[in-house]
Every structure is written in C-alpha cells, then in structure tokens.
C-alpha cells in the first residue's frame, strides 16, 4: 500500500461495504486507502488523534466523515481506548473498550454513553458478531455478552490459554470465538455449554522444539481473522508469518513464508479476495526492541480460493 503509516501500525480494517482500508498508527493518525481491482492503492484521506491511535490513546473515539473531511468526537474514556467495534443489530451502536476497565456503548448522536460495563481489569481485546460480544482483559479474564442484554455478562471465564490474551475474533455465525495468546497458542471456544466438547486449542507461531533438547522459540499470536465466505481463518504473529486454517476439520490449509517483520494486524476484504496484513513492530520485545529502523508496511495478498476453502478431515 502506498504512503503507509510512519510509525507502528496498531490495526487495519476493511470496510464491509467497499474496498476501503483503514489503518490506525502510533504516529497519531488514521489513514484510509481505496484499494483498486488491480491491487494498487490510493491514499484517500487521513485524520489525527492527540496521541497514538490504538484505537485512541488520547482517550477519545472519533467518527470521521470521508465525504466532508470532518471528524466528530463520539466516545470518551478515562484511559486509552484499546478497541472500537460497530455492533450490528436493530439499532447499530458503537462499543469502545478501554484500559480504564470499562466497555461503553454509544449512540453516536448523543454525548453520554448508553451504558457502561465495569470490567475486572484493563481491556486488551474485543470483538463482536451480533448478538455476541467477547472481551478479553488483563489477568486472562474473558467476558461474554449477549447483546440482547448487553449490560450483564452472559458468561465470565478464565482463558483456556495459560498466558496473556492477545487477540479475540468471534466466529462468523456468532456461536463462539477464537482466542490467541502471547505463548504461540490459539483456542477455539464455543459459547454454549452444550457445545463444549468441540472446544480445542493448538500451537502455532513457534520455531524449533522438535526434540527435548531443542527448546521451541515461542511468538505471540497477534491476530485472528475470519474469511467472510468460507468461514476459515488466518493467524499471524510476532514471528513474521501468517497461515490459513480450517476450524471444523482442525487442520492447517496454508503456511506462508516469513515477511521480514512482525505482523501486527490482518483482515480480509468483504468478499475474501484480498488479505491485508500490516508489517510493524508489535512491542513483543518492549521498548528496547523499538528503533527507527523498524519498517511499517501494509501488504495486500491476493487470496487463492484453494488456500482458504474448507477441507475434509
């Protein structure tokens, strides 16, 4: 993608309506690109926050109108906003999750939140497929909400993974969610207790460890993205690789070579023909790993249907 962010890329997301790609960055800016049918990109517009856009280290959420170039403040927290999600339903609302240990629901036409949910810890990751919303916090807390009753958790559990939660992505049909940790492991979790027998976890984004003497080098799973047509999914991590997987047959579909930098965020476009991934320092080595030589790129991968189609067991 031409004219990428100048600092760490915190998240990228495609529009569900057209091939517009938004990217938030530690350089305080949110950029929007139009992706052409031939894979080229046009930088359409950019707007700024007062601090790194995590989704908002300046503690505010903004709604940007591409047609007018105007941004409106629509959300506010007492600490940086880590996640922003549009929640579909009869009346679409905005959900924001913060390090202030709350999730807030907003009608963007009003200044005050519709509702505020108190969490046990700082929010690290959040995703929603109506009527499901799943939030992962520090200390491995997982809170599951039925948006028909959004103020009270439907279920609260401890993550099935032993280490810090890094990413959560709801199944396309809303029956469960995938969760990734800093320990190179992913779990597939169903919401309903009757489906618990289908829960499983697997190792990924690791190097070595084939023998008892050869200790594995373990990398963070930074992102899980679901294919909008086939319901398969991708994982990407600090090791600078991404792979496609089939949840139902529990097998890897395709592994891709290292890209030369950690993959900090990924997404498919609305029909699953483009897979976008951000190459950017992901803070897996703390501040000591950050330097001016770190590259920041957004790459567009043309998806081969065979690589993402489900397979028989």
TrEMBL record:
Domain of life: Eukaryota
UniProt-listed Pfam families: WD40
InterPro entries per UniProt: WD40/YVTN_repeat-like_dom_sf (IPR015943), WD40_PAC1 (IPR020472), WD40_repeat_dom_sf (IPR036322), WD40_rpt (IPR001680)
Chain positions of WD repeats: 9-43, 74-116, 221-255
Keyword Repeat: yes
SMART domains documented for this protein: WD40
Keywords: Repeat, WD repeat
Family: Belongs to the WD repeat rae1 family.
Protein name: Poly(A)+ RNA export protein
Lineage of producing organism: Eukaryota, Fungi, Fungi incertae sedis, Mucoromycota, Mortierellomycotina
């Amino acid at each position: 993608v031409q004219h990428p962010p100048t600092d760490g890329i915190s998240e990228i997301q495609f529009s569900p309506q057209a091939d517009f790609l938004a990217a938030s960055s530690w350089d305080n800016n949110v950029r929007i690109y139009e992706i052409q049918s031939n894979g080229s990109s046009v930088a359409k517009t950019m707007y700024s926050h007062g601090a790194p856009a995590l989704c908002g280290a300046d503690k505010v959420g903004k709604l940007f109108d591409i047609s007018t170039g105007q941004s409106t403040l629509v959300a506010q927290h007492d600490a940086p906003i880590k996640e922003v999600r549009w929640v579909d339903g009869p009346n679409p609302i905005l959900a924001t999750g913060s390090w202030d240990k709350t999730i807030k629901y907003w009608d963007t036409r009003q200044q005050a939140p519709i509702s505020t949910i108190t969490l046990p810890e700082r929010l690290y990751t959040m995703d929603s497929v109506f009527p499901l919303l799943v939030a992962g916090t520090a200390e491995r807390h997982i809170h599951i909400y039925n948006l028909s009753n959004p103020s009270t958790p439907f279920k609260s559990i401890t993550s099935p993974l032993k280490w810090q939660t890094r990413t959560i992505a709801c199944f396309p049909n809303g029956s469960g969610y995938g969760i990734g940790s800093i320990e190179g492991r992913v779990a597939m979790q169903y919401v309903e207790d009757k489906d618990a027998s289908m829960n499983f976890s697997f190792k990924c984004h690791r190097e070595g460890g084939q023998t008892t003497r050869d200790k594995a080098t373990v990398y963070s799973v930074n992102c899980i993205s679901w294919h909008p047509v086939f319901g398969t999914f991708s994982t990407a991590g600090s090791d600078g690789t991404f792979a496609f997987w089939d949840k139902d047959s529990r097998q890897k579909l395709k592994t891709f070579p290292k890209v030369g930098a950690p993959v900090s965020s990924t997404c498919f476009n609305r029909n699953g023909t483009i897979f976008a991934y951000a190459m950017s320092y992901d803070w897996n080595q703390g501040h000591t790993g950050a330097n001016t030589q770190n590259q920041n790129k957004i790459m567009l991968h043309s998806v081969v249907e065979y690589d993402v189609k489900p397979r028989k067991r």
